[in-house]
Design brief:
Helix 1 (about 35-40) packs across helix 2 and helix 3 packs parallel to helix 4 (about 95-105). Helices cover about 30% and strands about 15% of the residues. It has a 5-stranded parallel β-sheet. It has helices at about 35-40, 45-60, 60-75, 95-105; strands at about 15, 80-85, 110-115, 130-135, 145-150. The model has no long low-confidence stretch (mean pLDDT about 85). The chain is globular.
Amino acid sequence: LNISTENNKMGKVYSFSLSPIVTCAMGIPCHRNCYAVKLARLRTNVRNSWKENTEAIRNLPPKEIIDTLVGYINWTRCRYFRWNVSGDFNIRNYWDITVAVAEQCPETKFLAFTKCYWTAEKPRPENYNLVLSVWKEYKPRKITTGLAYYNDGTYPIPSNAKECPGN
């Protein structure tokens, strides 16, 4: 399993990612402008890591993945961990794996951004923060809080939304 220990945007935050598009929600409109696809084209090592993680989720027993991730997180004593810098939960057992890891690592704060809106209705531990990503008109029907909006200036976002001072 490939775990990143930091990146340019998040700094020293550990993360686990999957291949973009193939693990994303069906019918998402953002695949044409996906930053992760662009990054995968530019960085072979990143693309290969994400592909290896995706294959591991598809082929290894969930318990083996959970034990490996929990062992690594506890060994490194990481305080912050992000799921899905690339990819999403639309793959066999992945959501359940992430929840089990968070349950077994209560001292670590977990974060995931997702367009798999069904995850918002699933139970998860207190240390697991889930943010639903909105892409223009692609948004959850029932949920109206805890959303992250993509703002390219072509689609209105709520006036009470806070802008991320990044890119």
